[in-house]
Design brief:
The complex is a heterodimer.
Chain A: H1 16-31, H2 35-38, E1 47-51, E2 55-61, E3 70-75, E4 78-85, E5 97-99, E6 104-111, E7 122-126, E8 129-135
Antiparallel strand pairs in A: 1-2, 2-8, 3-4, 4-6, 7-8
Chain B: E1 14-18, E2 22-28, E3 37-42, E4 45-50, E5 60-64, E6 71-76, E7 81-91, E8 94-101
Classes of the chains: A alpha+beta, B mainly beta.
C-alpha cells in the first residue's frame, strides 16, 4: 500500500469546487500589492498516527503555534484538528524576502475505528509539536481470549 | 569503535526577511529545544543543525508523515552581514535568528547643508 500525502482541500462536498474558484479569484484581486495575502494557501501540518494497546496517539508538527490558535473538535469517532497560523509580517520594505513557511487556516480530521473515550482525551503542545492521546474505550481494547484445551 | 554513518538531514522551512539594519531568519524546527540547536559561523557560512528528540512512538504506526531526521541548513552570508553580531532565540519550535548588517551597508541619511 502506498502512502500518499494527504492534502487538505477543504470541504469535500460536491458544490465546494465553486466556492474554491470564488476564493481563488478573490485572492487574485485582493492580493495585488499585498504580499502577505498571497502567502496564505492551503496547507496542513504533517501528522503521525500511532496505536498502542490502550490509546491512539496523534502527533502533528505545528511550529510556531500554541494552544491559543489550535482547536480540537470531537464528534462521534472523528477527531478534527484545526488552527490558523497568522502571518504577522508587514512586508512594506523593498528588499529580498523569502517566505517558505505556510500561513493560513488548516483542518484535518481522523476517524478512529472503535471510537475513544471522549472524556479522557489529553492534548499537549510543546516545542511546536501537538500530541493528542485518545484513550480507547474499555470494550474496544484488544482482549486476549484464553484457549482452553480439554 | 563506532563508524560514523552519513546521516541525511531534513531541510527546515525558513523565512528570510530583509530589514533596514538586520536580516531576520525564521526557521521551523518542530520538536527541537534550544539545547539541541547548533548554530555556527565559519568563514562566510552560517550552519544550523537542529536535533529532534524523537522518542520512538510506541505501538503500530498508521500514518507517518513527520520526518524523524534532524534538521540542517547552511546559509551563505554576504559581506554585508557582520558575523560577530548574531542573536538567536527559540520559541515554540521556531528559531529566530537576527543577523546584523555591517555599518557600511546600513542606509544612511545624508544631511544637506
Amino acid at each position: 500500500m502506498a502512502l500518499v500525502r494527504w492534502r487538505n482541500r477543504g470541504d469535500l462536498a460536491p458544490w465546494s469546487a465553486l466556492g474554491e474558484l470564488e476564493k481563488e479569484i478573490g485572492r487574485v484581486f485582493r492580493g495585488f500589492g499585498g504580499l502577505p495575502d498571497l502567502l496564505e494557501r492551503d496547507w496542513a501540518p504533517a501528522v503521525d498516527l500511532s496505536e498502542t494497546d490502550n490509546a491512539y496517539i496523534v502527533e502533528a508538527d505545528v511550529p510556531g503555534m500554541t494552544k491559543d490558535n489550535i482547536e480540537l473538535v470531537i464528534v462521534d469517532n472523528v477527531i478534527t484538528v484545526k488552527g490558523e497560523r497568522k502571518n504577522e509580517h508587514k512586508v512594506d520594505e523593498a528588499g529580498y524576502h523569502r517566505f517558505e513557511r505556510n500561513y493560513g487556516a488548516f483542518q484535518r480530521s481522523f476517524e478512529v475505528p472503535g471510537g475513544f473515550d471522549n472524556d479522557k482525551v489529553e492534548a499537549k503542545i510543546e516545542d511546536g509539536v501537538l500530541r493528542v492521546t485518545l484513550p480507547k474505550r474499555e470494550e474496544a481494547k484488544r482482549k486476549q481470549i484464553e484457549v482452553k484445551v480439554t | 569503535m563506532t563508524t560514523a554513518t552519513a546521516q541525511e538531514y531534513m531541510s527546515p522551512r525558513v523565512n528570510i526577511i530583509d530589514q533596514a539594519e538586520t536580516v531576520l531568519l525564521e526557521v521551523e524546527l518542530p520538536g527541537v529545544t534550544k539545547n539541541s540547536v547548533d548554530l555556527d559561523v565559519k568563514d562566510d557560512e552560517l550552519t544550523l543543525i537542529g536535533r529532534r528528540n524523537t522518542t520512538d512512538s510506541p505501538g503500530t504506526l498508521h500514518l507517518c508523515e513527520r520526518s524523524k531526521r534532524d534538521f540542517r541548513r547552511v546559509f551563505a552570508l554576504s559581506r554585508a552581514i557582520d558575523p560577530t553580531n548574531i542573536e538567536a532565540e527559540m520559541k515554540d519550535g521556531v528559531l529566530m535568528v537576527t543577523l546584523h548588517k555591517t555599518d557600511a551597508v546600513k542606509p544612511k541619511r545624508i544631511k544637506i547643508k
